[in-house]
Amino acid sequence: MSHVKAGGTAKNVHDSPGQRLGVKVYAGEKVNNGQVIVRQVGMTKRPGEGTMLSKNYTIHAKKDGVVSFEKRKVRTFSGRSVQRTFVLVK
Predict the structure, then answer these.
(1) N or C: where does the chain have the smaller number of CB atoms within 10 Å of the terminal CB?
(2) What is the pTM of this model?
(3) Beta bridge partners of residue 70, listed in sequence order
């Protein structure tokens, strides 16, 4: 009788596409109302003047203008001050 040994189970075969996260418009570039500036998971960057945060943490432009990034100190819940990056449209 001819036999074929059992093939092992294939692990790590599921492949999902990348989420295309990151900064889409850099500082000094012009944006239109509603345009995506940053796609992110969580609040790595925070919305500032002229921007808004959507449900999935994407930062959009609220008005036409020029994008800029600025570091500001923010007080945490414990009272500690930490630097965070804010996205602005002026």
Answers:
(1) N
(2) 0.79
(3) 86
Place of tokens 């596409």: 17
Q: What is the DSSP letter of 38?
A: E
Q: CA 10 → CA 5, 7, 14, 19, distances in Å?
A: 15, 9, 10, 25
pLDDT in tens, 27-67: 999 999 999 999 999 999 999 999 999 999 999 999 999 99
Report residue 48 as tokens: 């500032």
CA 68, distance to chain mean position in Å, is 16
What are the structural domain ranges in the chain? 22-89
The three-state (H, E, C) secondary structure of 39-67, written as one string: ECCCCCEEECCCEEECCCCCEEECCCEEE
